[in-house]
Amino acid sequence: MLIGLMALAAAGAWGVVVVRRDPLGRAFLKLGLRAKARAARSLLRSGRTPWLAKAVVAAVVVYLAIPFDIIPDFIPILGQLDDVLVVAGAFALLLKLIPREELRRAIDEADPPDSG
């Protein structure tokens, strides 16, 4: 369990660093909740999004849905920390897997600039 927790912490820390340095990652995070959902749906439906990226999303959804975690959820704060670290690591991995132009297109379509 300790090794799993250390690996999870490393993946989460890596995810935070990658997202903070990536302009498209920051742009995605700045979107509102509905715009994030639109962008995610667009990326999942796109034929230009690699199947591995879609598999990462599916794996994260399954991990969050199952009742067994590395740290049980009934432990205050720490119980939710593993979920946050998994999402941060997965988000960073998705930023690496999805082609930049495809990610930019999905963000722009989800939150178009004001037309003046």
Task: Describe what is shown at a glance.
About 75% of the residues lie in helices and about 0% in strands. It has helices at about 1-20, 25-30, 35-45, 50-65, 80-95, 100-110.
Search tags:
116 residues; 6 helices; mainly alpha
What does this structure look like?
This protein is mostly helical and 116 residues long. The chain has one domain. 75% of the residues lie in helices and 0% in strands. It contains six helices and no strands. The longest helix is centred in the N-terminal third of the chain and has 20 residues. The chain is elongated, with a radius of gyration of 15 Å. The termini are far apart.
Described by strand count, sense and barrel closure, the largest sheet is: none
**DSSP strand content:** under 5%
Amino-to-carboxy terminus distance: 54 Å
- Helix and strand succession? HHHHHH
Shape: elongated
Radius of gyration over alpha carbons? 15 Å
Helical region count? 6
Number of strands: 0
Proportion of residues in helical segments: over 70%
Q: What count of structural domains? A: 1
* SS content category: mainly alpha
The pLDDT mean sits at: 85
Which ranges are low-confidence, i.e. pLDDT below 50, for 5 or more consecutive residues? none
